[in-house]
Amino acid sequence: MTTAISNKNVSCLYIPIKDYDQGVRVPIDPLPNVDDILEILKGEVAPLDLWLKLAIEYYKQDKIQDFIKLLSQVLDPAIEEFYKDSKVERIAMLNALASYYTQLGTQERDKLKKEEYFNQATFHFNKADKIDLHQPLTWIGKAVLLLCKGEVDRAETNFQKVLDLASKDSTIPGIPAKLGHACILFNKGNYDKALDTYQKVIHQNANCSPSVRLGLGYSYFKLGRNERAKESFERVLQLDQDNVEALIGLSLVLMNEDQLAQAMELILQAYKLSPTNPIVLNHLANHYFFRGELSKVHPLAFAAFNNTDVSHIKAESCYLIARAYHAMEKWKEALQYYHQAVLKCKDFYLAQYGLGQTYLHNGDFDKAIACFELVLEKQPNNYETLQVLGVLYKHSSHSSKDTEKIKRVVKKATELNPTEPSNWIELGQILETTSELTAALDAYERGVGLMKASDQKVSSEILNNIAVLRQQKGLYPEAEATYLQIISESGFELNDYKAVNVTTTYNLARLYESMGQVVKAKEIYKGILKEHPNYIDCYLRLGCICKNEGENYESSEWYREALNISPNNAEAWALYGNLHLSRDEWYHAQKKFEQVLESSNKNDTYASLSLGNIYYNAKFSTPDKVEKYLGNAESYFQRILSKNPNNIYAANGIGMVAAEKGNFALSSEIFLQLREAAIDVQPVSINLAHIYMARGLYDNAIKLYESCLKKSTSLKDTELLLLYLSKAYYEANRFVECKLTLKKALHHSPSNQSLLYNYAITIESHANMISTKPNKKTWDTSNSITELDFAKKVLTNLSNTKPNPKLNFSISKAKHHLAKVEKLHTLLVDIHKNLEQQESDLAKKKGIAFEIQKKEEEEKKKILAEAEALRLQRVEADLKAAQEIQDKINNMATEDDSATTPSKKRKKGNNAEEDANNDDDEGLFGSDDDKKRSKKRKGTDDDGENEQEEEEAAVEGGETGETGEQETNQEGQESNNNEVEMEEKEDLFGSDQE
Amino acid sequence: MYEIGKKISNAHDDGIWSVKWSGDIIATGGMSSKVKTWNGTQPQFLTESKLFDRHVLGVTSLDIDPTDKYLATGGLDGHIRLWDLNTNTVHKDIDSGPLGCWKLGFISKGAELVTVSEAGIITIYSTETGEKTRSISNTSKQILSMAISPNGEQLAIAGTEGIVSVFELESGKKVNSFKAHSAPIRALCFSSDSKNLFTGADDSQIRLHDLHSSTPFIASFLGHSSNILCVSASKDGKKLASSGSIDRKVCIWDIKSRKLDYTFNVHADNCWDLAWSSDSTKLLSVSDDCSLVSYSLTKQ
């Protein structure tokens, strides 16, 4: 900062005497008393720049008091008044004072005093501003002050302003502003631009002070251009061989180039020059640390710490102290100083790492993790940190919290060092917890592969994990191989191994179970139980296997065994309850689930849910207690929701109860909401569809059932859904689709008699509809009759079945329907006969009509041909006559000729008219027919159910047909119409029932 | 190379339940009343050939006799229809009552037709006369699947209870009966040497059984994630094809190594039936999604 004010050595100054040419000579060395000088200056009204020069001389001779006294005169109102016009000079003086205070402020360590100095500086700058607000010098001064106060951004704007002005007006000194700007750029880490600016300054002013080159050197250093940095520092040292900063810079460069001895020499040199320079001290301390002279580290580092205000230098010192303590295994102190270092400089990752290590030593894993994570933020590719973190996460208490983060860390470690097996194993373990089976297995396999390649023994735990993963992925043979490998490597036989490692043996049994090798699985489970009679899981699995095999009694025996050993085992009770549920033993199931709530967990969700469902289902068997049971069910569901408001199944239960109580609005709202939240939970969608059914919204229900059917994941669901869907189609009178759906269901389970029963009923309803359908064709009726034949057979079979409580249809109803079907059958046969009769009549008529038409046409043609022949004859005759006349009467023939031609023309015209008339007739006929047909269609729509009218209409239809060609067209059209009508009618039925 | 050959997307208007392939003739039937035949050889491979429309309810099973003279179809309506493939007319129409013919197949080199009903009644008819010639007594009910051994000697049936029963066709004697699964068996097929039996069940498993052993179970083939609807061994004895319902898969297995070779995911709904070409290089699958798909399965 002071470099800006450089002066050549002058031996004396002259103070001009007022009104004389002569001046008073003032010797510079030594300067006279300041009071005397002031008297002269005031007396002779010396120009202010002289005042400033003298003040600077005082400053140079360290007569600070005199310097201040002299410059302070500028604040004297009298002086101010007198030198009113010497604005620039006054500003210069004020700036000089302010800069002095700024400097004082930066050097002061006492905060209060520092503040005071900075305030003084500000005060003087403000004074200068009052004289002229647009003086660039003041701005630079202020910017420097701001920079010293740490207000970098404001400083930068000030510098920028000056630079802007300087670019327009070359008299304004731009260099100081540029330097300031470069300084800011450097501190912001923008080394490129800083370097650029420094280079420009040097280019503009080759003789600038060495400190500019210092900036250049440090910029090069930061940019890693060591050679250029070295050159710069050496140049500075040429100019000023005692420049401490240059010495440090140069030593840093040398250190980077591994020339430690030379670097240390420079540091020592710097130390001699400036024994309190904190950077020098830190470097020395660091040097001694690496030489193992730990005792020398502390005094140096402490001295550095005390000699600086700059926090990152302080942090460095603390770090050095901490490291020394760390090396001496004085953990408490190390922790303290690492902590200090981190506090002083948050980005100081080396200190963070040290702190993490210390925490790690103290067993404070969570804190250590936090430290290492911070290190990783700064150094994302630091392998050691990644590895340490990977291990640490396993021990930390909150490992489950952020597995994503952990995964990233461990993955990175594998990326950086893919040949280290432990990294892969680590990754595998993490991925396992997040159920990324494929990735986890991959990681494990790579790890194991690496271990095998380097002849390391793979522990049975890792192999076990691999096997489990393979099992989960469905790679059963591979999993089996791995389990067997573990067992064979242990040197035991499978039978003995269960005594050694139950877990692996149990897993193997689970594998066999999922491979469908139930016998093997059972054997192993039983074997394990011989060695470990308290291994509950084995009893439970055995129970499940037996249940799946349909051996219910044996299954319950195993569950009971389990409960003997552990009477409060919730899982055992729940499985036992499920066994009862599968056999519709509601009472026993209820007792089992109640046991769960009583003995193990009052709030067990599964048991509560099961009980709610049991009570809900109980209403079907005991109609008199519906109210009570529904209430019970509701309270169970409510209880679950109060503990766990997001339980969809409980909310679903509430919806079911509401629906059962007849509150369809509420229940459909519940189901709709649930569906939004969990579109994949099938029961909700199915229930919503049921509600639509109950409200008569069949189309909505059908859509929902169909979408559920598409997503169905189990055969049981599929069969049920087909049943629901067929019911919905039936209710919507969409019998064709209903039959298709039932056919599908029957194909899945041909032995389900209720499906057959439903099929027969649907045939009946469809036939009923066809019998009352207008414009039916023989195809409809004949189809219907064959179907009714089938229905008759089915219903006969069904009504002849022996009464049995397990029958899922009613025999009496089957009989009732059988009678109806038989009636319908005879009716349809009659209708069919009629239709056939009509159709054959029609065909005959068609034939006759065709014949007639043919004849007519032939006759017409004949007549026309005759007429034509006649005409031609006549024409010929005329011509002949004319010719004869012409021949006979040669010259007089012209008049006669003119008389005959028009008559010829007239005849031709008449013929044309006739043709047109014929055409018209045919056209009218056709359109008439169309009109009749369309009328008829409307009529049948209105009275669609009226049988008689239809038949009349059908007769009418028969009559209207006249010409053969038109008839065939009509048929085609009518069959099209039939389809449309059917659909319309279905809609009508639907809305009627609504 | 395992690859999809040709896909006929709307081979039928409704779901297809059954497919058979004999030489030049491919026959398909299903939910709709129509039974179709397709060309089985190039260059018109899988072009529609004939249409037989007589069944009122779906066709659950069909077979072509070894002389390619007759096509037999059996439907939900219980009618067994024998079609003369030369004249394209109904040769015989046999009424066996509702669900009276769930599965059927030609035996005795085409001279006879064996049918099994849902209720487990096994009946044998003469192809020529359409008359019932004899029946095989059987006690197991709720039958879902039937298979005839390639050597024509044995008949296997299985159903809801997971029990397989094997009969000697000539004598009508039951020669073996064992519980193969604890779930309904919908898929059944003999090995090409007629010694072993493959079963596919609702437990998603395919199992291989030795019919001449007192402990028939040999191995499980695991790969399907839903109930199995069809298993079919290639005539060269090397490959087994299987199809699933909800998983929509068609899987090709290597019988010797018992490993899954390849999985096709072509269908959008239950894949009910499969048929091999006689040279074992092609496979057909049919599905509820109304499509007929051919696969080329030659080793390179």
UniProtKB/TrEMBL annotation, chain A:
Renumbered ranges of TPR repeats: 210-243, 244-277, 349-382, 536-569, 570-603
Compositional bias segments (type: Low complexity): 966-979
Gene3D superfamilies: Tetratricopeptide repeat domain (1.25.40.10)
Gene Ontology CC: one annotated term: Cdc73/Paf1 complex
UniProt feature, compositional bias: Acidic residues: 912-923, 942-954
MF annotations from Gene Ontology: RNA polymerase II complex binding
UniProt cross-references to InterPro entries, sorted A to Z: Ctr9, TPR-like_helical_dom_sf, TPR_rpt
Segments for region (Disordered): 888-994
Keywords assigned: Repeat, TPR repeat
Stored Pfam families: TPR_1, TPR_16, TPR_6, TPR_7, TPR_8
Repeat listed as a keyword: yes
Superkingdom to which the source organism belongs: Eukaryota
Ranges that cross the membrane: none
GO biological process assignments: regulation of DNA-templated transcription; transcription elongation by RNA polymerase II
Protein name per Swiss-Prot or TrEMBL: RNA polymerase II complex component
Organism: Polysphondylium violaceum
Automatic annotation (TrEMBL), chain B:
Keywords on record: Repeat, WD repeat
Superkingdom assignment: Eukaryota
InterPro entries reported for this sequence: SKI8, WD40/YVTN_repeat-like_dom_sf, WD40_repeat_CS, WD40_repeat_dom_sf, WD40_rpt
PROSITE patterns, A to Z: WD_REPEATS_1, WD_REPEATS_2, WD_REPEATS_REGION
Keyword Cell division: no
Repeat (WD) residue spans along the chain: 9-39, 52-93, 178-219, 221-263
Entry GO terms, CC: Cdc73/Paf1 complex
Protein's name according to its UniProt entry: WD40 repeat-containing protein
Annotated source species: Polysphondylium violaceum
